[in-house]
């Protein structure tokens, strides 16, 4: 079974990946080498982080000559936010029901 939202959350669990997403959000594109200069990890580690983000659908890559450039694809983030909002709404409903129940028990 495919779980795109789960892959997004898995990808966002790592602080370096979150930084890479933030960095890509501030510019059109970047290479793994460019991003590695901003992080305390190797270029190879950044490339692995970018691969995980790509698998989650959060970035896309394209070749430009000898370079691979990455850019943010925010749609999966929106889907994850929709999921969070749905879960939050369910909990709000449950908490309202619990409050009503507790108020009725006191009466």
Tell me what you see in this structure.
There is one protein chain. The chain is 65% helix and 11% strand. With 107 residues, the protein is mainly alpha-helical. It has a single domain (4-106), classed as Winged helix-like DNA-binding domain superfamily/Winged helix DNA-binding domain (Arc Repressor Mutant, subunit A), CATH 1.10.10. The chain has five helices and two strands; from the N terminus they run ααααββα. A two-stranded antiparallel ribbon has the order 1-2.
Distance between the termini: 48 Å
Widest beta sheet: strand line-up: 1-2
Q: Could you tell me the radius of gyration in angstroms?
A: 20 Å
Give a short account of the largest sheet.
2 strands, antiparallel
CATH superfamily name? Winged helix-like DNA-binding domain superfamily/Winged helix DNA-binding domain
Q: Quote the beta fraction.
A: 5-15%
Number of strands: 2
Overall outline: elongated
The average pLDDT score comes to 92
The SSE order reads: HHHHEEH
Using the coordinates above, name the CATH class. Mainly Alpha
Question: Which spans of ≥5 residues are poorly predicted at pLDDT below 50?
Answer: none
Fraction of residues in helices?
55-70%
What would you call the structural class?
Answer: mainly alpha
Count of discrete structural domains: 1
Topology-level CATH name: Arc Repressor Mutant, subunit A
The helix count comes to: 5
Which architecture does the CATH hierarchy give at level 2? Orthogonal Bundle
């Amino acid at each position: 079974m495919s779980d795109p939202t789960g892959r997004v959350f898995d990808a966002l669990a790592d602080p370096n990946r979150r930084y890479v997403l933030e960095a890509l959000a501030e510019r059109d594109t970047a290479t793994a080498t460019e991003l590695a200069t901003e992080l305390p990890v190797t270029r190879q580690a950044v490339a692995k982080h970018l691969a995980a983000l790509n698998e989650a659908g959060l970035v896309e890559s394209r070749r430009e000559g000898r370079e691979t450039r990455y850019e943010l694809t925010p749609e999966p983030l929106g889907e994850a936010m929709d999921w969070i909002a749905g879960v939050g709404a369910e909990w709000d409903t449950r908490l309202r029901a619990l409050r009503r129940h507790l108020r009725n028990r006191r009466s």
